[in-house]
Amino acid sequence: MKHLRERLGEVVESDVCIIGSGISAAMVADKLARTRLATIVVVEAGDDVPPLDRRAGLRQRFLDYDENPWPRDHLEGYDVEGPLQSRSMCVGGLAMHWGGVTPRFSPEDFRLKTQFGLGTDWPISYEDLEPHYLEAEEVLGVAGEQGPPEMDPRSKPFPMPMLPLSYNLALLKEWVTKAGIAMWSQPSAKNSVPYAGRAQCCRNDTCTPICPIGAKYSPDFTWNALRRTNRVKLHTHTLVRRLEVDARNRVVRAVAVKVGAARDAPGREIEFRAKQFVVAGGYVWSSHLLLSSRDSRFPNGIANSSGLVGKYLTGHRNVQAYIRLPMKLYPGINEQHSLVSKQFMRVPPRSDGRYLRHDLRVWESTSGQAPRLRDDSGALMLGDEILSDWRRRTEHGVARVRAYYDVIPDRSSELTLDGSRKNPWGDALPKLALRDAPESAEVRAWTEDTIRALFDEMARTGNGQVQRTQSDEFQDHPAGGCRMGKDPATSVTDSWGRAHDHENLFVVGAPTCVSGSCANATLTFCALSLRSAEEIGRSLPGKSP
Ligand SMILES: Cc1cc2nc3c(=O)[nH]c(=O)nc-3n(C[C@H](O)[C@H](O)[C@H](O)COP(=O)(O)OP(=O)(O)OC[C@H]3O[C@@H](n4cnc5c(N)ncnc54)[C@H](O)[C@@H]3O)c2cc1C
Ligand code: SF4
């Protein structure tokens, strides 16, 4: 044992060891610290982020020079092949620069097989997750408007009143209402009033990538509070390379390495021991860690008796359009806020048997509205010409509309280890490929045409015109890779995120999703993580209230 300690260097013991410090990890740590007596250690590969008082300056440099406002937020030599959402690896993870948009999934998302005959049902229902949606909305601080209850079921009001609609959004709402579409203020983790010691949103309009005043929730606020009161110990710059399992199939240690020669000797190993391990590395690094933890007993990695670790990656694709409308808008008031509808998400099966569910959002847009020096033909304009060209083009308004549509994931929608590319410690790097199941692939062209026809119809109702449409190849809000389920043969974890194969190993948030819905998914990752925390906490002594 002495020999092992010397080889490994430091040994850190705790009740719960959480790997990753993104938003899902923050939910688990916060809930355990609030409700349980436990030592909690968090291991994060990346660095701390700049504190709040530096963010106004960082935002200004982003605006002036297009500089990344989160310097040093990724690890060199830790690259991914395939459609990576962001390479951010830092305290707080991707949600340091997220948009803070927080709709819920809808009840249909959890029962696609039963209701539509395709995909896979989740082992939990919307009703099972509803209390955790409420809890997530409280913890993040969500400002929202109750939509029509039949479209937007919820058992309690939002913790904060909705973000007010700008003059532009109020006009656009009149237009969509005429088109027969019910839309309301998009729920967002941004303070419409001062909340949790953080300021009220004052429309700086740079939520993605940086809120200079902390009105938008980001996980660093949770980590700061937990670290200040010594309720968690966060090890930054520490990359977990593998988990090790004992003869009873319990995870006994996470073997990590210090990253970054500036601070510590490069390559120095640290061993984390805990009663329970929580993998919170997001949709890429969670599966990667489980697959990388292979040895002679587990040649395909741990938690992988189903062979499904890294499989069924999921997300949603989009179609968007810019619609020119005969209304005077004043873009630039709050471009990042939008109207949302679930009218096309909460639909029964179609009589033609084809599957289509999508959300719908509407924003103000500056597309084609900015002053310019050259006209449509490319000719240079001078003096008054510039002003009259600008006046002419701003006589009308432009709306940006976008629908995220649900894509059923294929088993081959996967993360695999690519032995030909290694990180600086010699571990194979991940390769991503998101692939549609045949039932989605078959209807993709029709799906996008149907959404474009809806946009045409909306434009006609407002005497407007669709200027251009586009649909992106990537799938947004990626998730999956360790999907949950009742049957250990067809899933990696149970509904609590507990690995079927290892009683003290949990995977939380995005990787456990069975499908990707057609709405921004992070609130759902948070609700799932809080539900996992409930189960993780059961074996720990409770805190007296
Ligand atoms: C620009 C942008 C805007 C977005 N806007 C929205 C939005 O408006 N609404 C919405 O719903 N979603 C949005 N998202 C998505 C959202 O940010 C993510 O879904 C969410 O942050 C994922 O959180 P996570 O905890 O699952 O993982 P991550 O944020 O990826 O956190 C995982 C953390 O674990 C660490 N880690 C991983 N493996 C290891 C290891 N082996 N050892 C140590 N540490 C490890 C990583 O360094 C990372 O910090 C946006 C994303 C981007 C990029
Ligand atoms: S609009 Fe501005 S103040 Fe409000 S959340 Fe976004 S960046 Fe922060």
Word description of this protein:
The protein is an alpha+beta fold and 545 residues long. The chain has one domain: FAD/NAD(P)-binding domain, CATH 3.50.50.60. The protein has helices at 2-8, 23-35, 55-65, 112-116, 126-140, 167-178, 219-228, 282-292, 384-393, 438-441, 444-461, 522-537, and strands spanning 10-19, 40-43, 184-185, 233-235, 238-245, 251-258, 269-279, 311-325, 339-341, 360-364, 397-406, 414-422, 428-433, 465-471, 476-481, 505-507. The strands form three sheets. Strands 1, 2, 4, 5, 6, 7 and 16 form a seven-stranded mixed β-sheet that branches. Strands 3, 8, 9, 10, 11, 14 and 15 form a seven-stranded antiparallel β-sheet that branches. Strands 12-13 form a two-stranded antiparallel ribbon. A hairpin with a 5-residue loop joins β12 and β13 (428-433). The longest helix is centred in the C-terminal third of the chain and has 18 residues, at 444-461. Residues 1-6 have low confidence and may be disordered. Iron/sulfur cluster (SF4) binds next to loops.
CATH architecture name = 3-Layer(bba) Sandwich
CATH superfamily: FAD/NAD(P)-binding domain
Termini Cα gap: 41 Å
| Fraction of residues in H or I helices | 10-25%
How many domains make up the 3D coordinates?
Answer: 1
Mean pLDDT: 95
Give the oligomeric state: single chain
Class per helix and strand makeup: alpha+beta
Element string (H = helix, E = strand):
HEHEHHHHEHEEEEHEEEHEEEHHEEEH
Please tally the helical runs, counting DSSP H or I stretches of 4 or more residues: 12
Shape: globular
Bound molecules: flavin-adenine dinucleotide, iron/sulfur cluster
Q: Can you tell me the CATH topology?
A: FAD/NAD(P)-binding domain
